[in-house]
Amino acid sequence: MPAIDVFDSAIWSPDERQYFDAVDHACAGSKNMLIGNGNAKHAVFLMDRFLRSAQREIRLFSGSLVQNVPHEGNRSLDVYANAHLIESAATFLKRPGAALRILLDGDLDAPTPEEHPLIKRASQTDGTFTVGRVSGRWLDALCGADFLLHWMTVDDTGFRLERNTTDYTALANFRSKEHAKRLSGLFDRMAADATSIVCPQALLTTSPPVAILGTYTAIADGSQCREAASGTCFEAEG
């Protein structure tokens, strides 16, 4: 059976439609709204909207750029193999000066980089596109700080931070410069020590790094993150 496409609105439940509409509302207005990401469907939809809203730079720290995951009814759900998400990435990379930088902490979900659908399509654009693998030194540091989490930042203004690396629950915000800049800074430090998979090592980092780990765990702490299990949206302070 074909994989489930999260962007097929005909199969949305009422709760999913309400959630996706709320995400679109937050994205369109760049609202300072905390968004709970409760499952893989939410994750794909949120990442697509981040790609659509980005103007300059996206940083993505992932495990393996997994192409699809098991879903209900013996079907799979396309993640980084989702055609809509891939085209959103390609459209973003057509923007002047756009850069999509990816770091992985595991093996790529494809026999070769050229066989991964996202990498294949992104490499056909004129934008800056890099994929690297995080060093063992950094993996040890992240594990030691209990911060081996995956995240995405957009233009240093928005972020999506997973609560763990297994079930796709996360917290996101389209307008949270403080947290986005911290995560972007950490990404840049990791990128400077990464092994290149797709593009020359020199392209992996551009922005100056900020302090290592330290306060980053505060981003993932707090009672608000528990809302991510159900996938809710609520106004943030400030």
What key attributes describe this structure?
nine-stranded mixed β-sheet; 31% helix; 238 residues; alpha+beta; two-stranded antiparallel ribbon; 11 strands
How is this structure best described in words?
- The protein has 238 residues and is of the alpha+beta class.
- Helix content is 31%, strand content 20%.
- The chain has a nine-stranded mixed beta sheet, with helices on both faces.
- Helix 1 packs parallel to helix 2 and helix 2 runs parallel beside helix 3 (83-93).
- The longest helix is centred in the first third of the chain and has 15 residues, at 14-28.
- The radius of gyration is 17 Å and the shape is globular.
- Residues 200-238 have low confidence and may be disordered.
List the helices and strands and how they pair.
Blueprint: H1 14-28, E1 33-37, H2 40-53, E2 57-62, E3 68-70, E4 76-78, H3 83-93, E5 99-104, H4 117-122, E6 128-133, H5 136-144, E7 151-154, E8 158-162, E9 170-173, H6 177-191, E10 195-196, H7 217-220, E11 233-235
Parallel strand pairs: 2-5, 5-6
Antiparallel strand pairs: 1-9, 1-11, 2-7, 3-4, 6-10, 7-8, 8-9
